[in-house]
Records
---
Amino acid sequence: MPVLTEIAKNYLIKVPFIKRMAKKRHVTGFNQSEEGVQTIYDTYKRFTGFEGKNIIELGPGHTWGPAKKMKEAGAASVSIIDIERYIPDSVQEENPWLNYIIYPGGAMPLPADHFDLVLSYTVYEHLRQPETTIRETYRILKKGGMAIHLIDLGDHMYFKIDPAKQFNCLKYGSKTWDLMSRNRSIYVNRIRLSGWRQLHQQAGFSIAEEIPYIDEYSRELYEKGQLQYLSPLKSEDRFASNILLVVRK
Ligand SMILES: C[S@@+](CC[C@H](N)C(=O)[O-])C[C@H]1O[C@@H](n2cnc3c(N)ncnc32)[C@H](O)[C@@H]1O
């Protein structure tokens, strides 16, 4: 029973020994690969320059390369904030300009109205407290400041082994989904494009750009009568597998 197996994995990951082993092997996003660093940097650079700016990136995982590139491009300061420590102390010792903050994921231990740019890449889909995080990004940004988020709206459990399961996470009721995944790094909050827009607007942001990427294979399957669990979604949400969201305070 796949659901029961996933529920068991979700409980087992809380066992301290298993958690430690899993963390050692855990790969976060691009995992500081050269190509990944460039992709993240180029994504942000599409919308902004970095010179003279106070910048914070949420959820870098192991990938601190974009922070380094932004510093080299003239950023006034670069901070990175995560809920888990993935970057070794030696990196911070060799790069004293890098402000690496670990926090529990709620309120951010940062001053209000300080940053020009808030950035994230494949982080928002993992947020356990999305409203709080969005409110916090609004609080720490200066008036006129910008936030850029690349959000992966796809399934993180099965998609890599089967492209027909791009949106498999949407099959389950919310209680079952939480039981299967809440404690795990493959957890996604399943908020869709229109939901992200609404949450940002409710927090006071205005939307500057919203670029969806459409999964044509899922659309094809849906038109053939499959993936019926997508039918309750708004049409703009149904096949959007990633979004690039740029918002302003
Ligand atoms: C898929 S990894 C992405 C890593 C990196 N951005 C990349 O693309 O290679 C997601 C990261 O988001 C972090 N994360 C999850 N919730 C967070 C939160 N509330 N605040 C900051 N980081 C968070 C995770 O710890 C993890 O490092």
Note: The chain has one domain: 27-157+172-216+234-248.
---
Amino acid sequence: MNPFSLVRLSTLSEVSARMAQAPETRRLRAGGIDLIDRLKEGLEAPDELVELRAVAGDDGARMTGLAERKGGWSIGSLVTLAQLASFADFARPFAAIREAAASAATPGIRNAATAGGNLLQRPRCWYYRHVDLICLKKGGAQCFALTGDNRYHAILGGGPSFIVHPSTLALALLAHDASVVVFSPKGERTIAIADLFVPPSVDPSREHALAPGDIMVTIELPPASAAQRSTYLAVKEKQSHDWPLGEVAVRASVTGGKLSGVRVALGHVAPIPWRSGEAEAVLEGQAPSAELFARAAQAALSKAKPLEHNGYKIPLVEGLLRQALHSICEVPLPE
Ligand SMILES: Cc1cc2nc3c(=O)[nH]c(=O)nc-3n(C[C@H](O)[C@H](O)[C@H](O)COP(=O)(O)OP(=O)(O)OC[C@H]3O[C@@H](n4cnc5c(N)ncnc54)[C@H](O)[C@@H]3O)c2cc1C
């Protein structure tokens, strides 16, 4: 790892202005879990790390705060996954947020990893993470996953790169129609979580829409009715510490015996957190039943195009989605 200096600035304006200058020589550090991995792996060698946690005053309070706002929540970008996982005030309407945070990584990592850093971590594809392999994401000519060992790669929305999006929290936030507030030298703006992530068909070299000097300040969860339910489920090879093989987050309300406001998000199947319009169309306005959930699960994966080694993800994610729908609608699972 190359030597670097650590810079501590106390205002967002100073951090943002510094990050906008010669951005290839600097990196912003939140919890540092992904960033330090990238430095140790030799993927990046910045001269300087700018410590986001040094920001003080009102902006520091916003970035570390968790505040109720008109029935929704404002989550500071520096709130840790451990804080989210144990936040008892996230009542049943927001359960998926707590469950996703509790599922990511290990207890030790969750104590340091921040919500903002989790959303903006880089992919774990073993070809991308190998310093000697110049894959498509690093300016090379091809995505090695297309013909290589692609057991963990995308089955939906892939091409020209077949990475899967790594953030567990992103999936739950997508199911909740969350947005992020971003500070830049030009002022603050709000980006819907669905627009934060950039598919490889648009630009294979990056995963999100933030530019140098953009700092994520908060994540905003819109208000929910008391009838809303959500949940997050994942399957991993090692339950104790691993990225998922497949994951789902669902949100819906059941009022008058019918489903409404349905959101279905699928993870570790696509280069971006994947919203399934097909499943939502099957479910919206219908009465919950095992038969309906089975049809929705089939619809969710109907456009999947597995690579040579990852066809197992189709039944895995279908099963997870059915289980999640049974859970939030309190319909017993069939024997
Ligand atoms: C063994 C292991 C298992 C794991 N399992 C999972 C898992 O199951 N699910 C999962 O989601 N993750 C998993 N992770 C990844 C881990 O959760 C992430 O690395 C961590 O959440 C990143 O957060 P951080 O605060 O440390 O980010 P950092 O490493 O500090 O930052 C990540 C990136 O985001 C940028 N950044 C951070 N904050 C901001 C901000 N506010 N504004 C603008 N840019 C910012 C940084 O510059 C950097 O490029 C695992 C990690 C390990 C080691």
Note: Residues 74 and 325 are 27 Å apart (CA to CA).
